[in-house]
Every structure is written in structure tokens, then in C-alpha cells.
Amino acid sequence: MKKDDDxxxxxxxxxxxxxxxxxxxxxxxxxxxxxxASKLDAMAGPTKQKARESYWRERVKDLSAELEKxxxxxxxxxxxxxxxxxxxxxxxxxxxxxxxxSPRPAEWDDDGGPRRA
Length: 117
Hints:
Layout: H1 30-42, H2 49-69, H3 74-100
């Protein structure tokens, strides 16, 4: 017969299990990317180039500090910043594409009036 100490149910390990922090990808923060894109888009033009660069540097500095605080390595932070930059550029292109779309002419409709959804 076995001793009670050999039963696995009676062995307790009080050490906390190892944990890994999984952060939410910065590029997936669509609202933040749209906000930054709209701010940068509002600063369009050659006279506001310094303001754009300054705003972008501040956002990168803020994101870097946040990611560093969460424990990411410098290589991971750089990768996240590049992914966020690409997300902002995508939002700028999407906004420009929407602005360039012309409305559908009313004469294309059968009844001559605007279509309702």
C-alpha cells in the first residue's frame, strides 16, 4: 500500500505559475490610428511639415514609453511602431479615397430621384 504522501492530490505547489504578458497590438488600435491620421491629415501642406513631424515624434515617444512600461524589448517596440505607422498610413489613404469618391448622379436612378437604402 502507498503512503498518503505519494498521492498527487495531496501534493501542493504554492509557487505561482509562470506568466506571460500578452499586449494588444498597437496596429490593431484602429481608433487611435484614425485619430492620429486625422490629425496628420489636418496638418497637410508644406508650411505645416514641422508640425506634422513634431506631432508624429510625440506619438512615437508616447507609444514607446507605454510599450516599454509593459515590458517589451526595444526590438519589439520598433516592430510595433512600424506596424502602427503602417496602420496610420492606411487610414490616411482610406480617408483620401473616400474624399475622392464622387456621389452617384441622380440621373442614373430609374425614377430620377435619389435612392434610399
